[in-house]
Amino acid sequence: METKLIIAGHGGQGIVLMGMVLAHAGMAEGKEVTFFPSYGPSMRGGTANCSVIISSEEIATPVISTPDILIAMNEPSFREFESRVTEKGGIFINRSLVAGSPTRDDVELFEVEATRMAGDLGNLRVANMVMLGALAGATGIVTLPTLVRSIEAVLPQRRRGLLDLNIKALKKGNETISRSFSLSPERVDHGRKKRVTGV
Amino acid sequence: MERVLMKGNEAVGEAAILSGCRYYFGYPITPQNELTAYMARRMPEVGGTFIQAESEIAAINMVYGASAAGERAMTSSSGPGISLKQEGISYLAGAELPCVYVNVMRGGPGLGNIAPAQSDYFQATRGGGHGDYRVIVLAPDSVQEMADLTMLGFYLADKYRNPAMILADALVGQMLEPMELRGPDFPELPPKSWAVGQMNGREQNLITSLFLGGDTLERHNLDLQRKYDSIQKDEVRWEGLLLDDADIAIVAYGMSARVARGAVIQGRARGLKIGLFRPITLWPFPSIMISRLVERVRCILVVEMSLGQMVEDVRLAVNGRCEVHLYARTGGGIPTCEEVLKRVERLL
Questions:
Q1: Residues B160 and B298 placed together within one structural domain of the fold
Q2: Is residue B215 part of a domain?
């Protein structure tokens, strides 16, 4: 089972941190993971995105053309990536900043008031963790306790003061989810793999 | 062993430190900046020296100096910066100085772009600078291998007194993956009795790439060639996947090999008889192994992120005995498993 996610938003929303925490949590639960960020000038004020793959098998390429799940933290990212989501995939939108709705009906939609809830907690910047908590609640890709341990491991030293707030945000997002969603992508029979290495 | 989540560029840095490298000289360029930043932070912590040089040319010549003094030294860059370093690399090769240098490839020619590419293959495997020389070229396809091959690079560089290069691309440099930070595990090497520095009564050592008069340079070049011959005999590394009954072998290295691996696994699930041959050393190139593939497969498909560079080495190895096809992307384009499979299906 392999789940491919694209997380997108604008620079400053903590998109890369979301991806790293998610990848770390996948690793902590014994899965194979890859994380690939957008890098370069787009990080400074423009759109930011990253690709995360969590799999029970070895992962081929970290590049995702058709994600199983899209997390859109703002309107432009939603518009940019909506059409690429795989059929019967999931779209998580930050309803506080995304006015539009999907133009397709073959995807499962989750609307999370991430930025508003982060504001209720006192800091708009933890909208990312609200969303990650919601993702875990809806999909079970990783569990909430693992996410809590992973934010502890991944949060940079200079942000340690914000650890408790981030954990609160994860929990708050997790609680808002009342239904679950399970992906049923084409299962690939990986078959027998045999490797030889020559020296 | 505990797995840690690490970025490819940073894994190179930590592996260099684990290898005893205490001298890093760099100059910033995307997409390898995390390596320079990592070294700026870590070198002072381990009592090493980090210098952000005034240019790439200065950085490689600082490597020359540190290496001549017998220390493990490293520099890194991406395409345009590696081009600037070529003069220094040629001098290091001529003077038989070990070092590890890293090219996290981006799109070219010229300033190109900052997206992943493999278009510096010719430059890497043909020497790159002037003169009759070779460098050892190692091509990682995962964050784990970014670390493992960096450690191997330091070992081989010292063993053969020759520059070793890590030829990575922006994908493997920028991505994070779980990896195990295990230290180097190689046989002990003799002390560097050739190094310059305090003499303490020993004979004078001379490190130079200048050989004037008579046939001294020809003899030096023939000595170098004997060294290259022994590297070609003993240091070829490669990996194979599902080749035993394959009708088509895909040959790919680095991140192209990861894409090809996905295509092989998907293709096998559909009953297609395909396998993957992945060169890990690009020089020395696994020509003999590829030549043996011809006895088993119907044809070969080379997948690379350059418009037909490695395919030339594959064709030389095959020597006309089977068809060698190419699926290439360039300028930052990354092949997908589906595209590779489509090409395979057309060949079957």
A1: no
A2: no
**Same structural domain, B281 and B229:** no
Q: Do B123 and B243 fall into the same domain? A: no
Domain match, B136 and B36 both: yes
Q: Report how many domains make up chain A.
A: 1
Q: Give B-chain residues touching A195 at CB under 8 angstroms.
A: 239-241
Residue type, position B45, single letter: E
- Residue where the block lists tokens 């960020």: A37
Whether A32 is in a domain gets the answer yes
Enumerate chain B positions whose Cβ falls within 8 A of a Cβ in A: 3, 5, 30-31, 114, 170-171, 174-178, 236-244, 255, 258-259, 261-263, 265-266, 268-269, 286, 289, 334, 336-338
Residue A20 contacts B, CB cutoff 8 Å: yes
The interface predicted TM-score (ipTM) is: 0.94
Is there a contact between A23 and B5 if contact means CB atoms under 8 Å apart? yes
Report the CATH number at residue A102: 3.40.920.10
pLDDT digits (tens, 9 = 90+) for A41-67: 655 567 899 999 999 999 999 999 899
The side-by-side arrangement of strands in the sheet containing B163-169 is B49-52, B23-26, B73-77, B99-105, B163-169, B136-138, B281-283
How many domains are contained in chain B? 2
Shared domain check, B151 and B21: yes
Q: What b-and-e string marks burial along B70-90, b requiring 16 or more CB atoms within 10 Å of the CB?
A: bbbbbbbbbbebbbbbbebbb
My answer on whether B11 and B98 are in the same domain is: yes
User: What pLDDT digit, counting tens, does each position of A141-179 carry?
Assistant: 999 999 999 999 999 899 999 999 999 999 999 999 877
Q: Is A34 on the interface with B (CB under 8 A)?
A: yes
Residues near B193 by beta carbon (within 8 Å), at least 6 away in sequence: B202, B205
Residue A154 pairs in a beta bridge with none
Q: Per the CB < 8 Å rule, is A194 touching B171? A: no
SS3 A70: strand
On whether the CB atoms of residues A194 and B244 are closer than 8 A, the answer is: yes
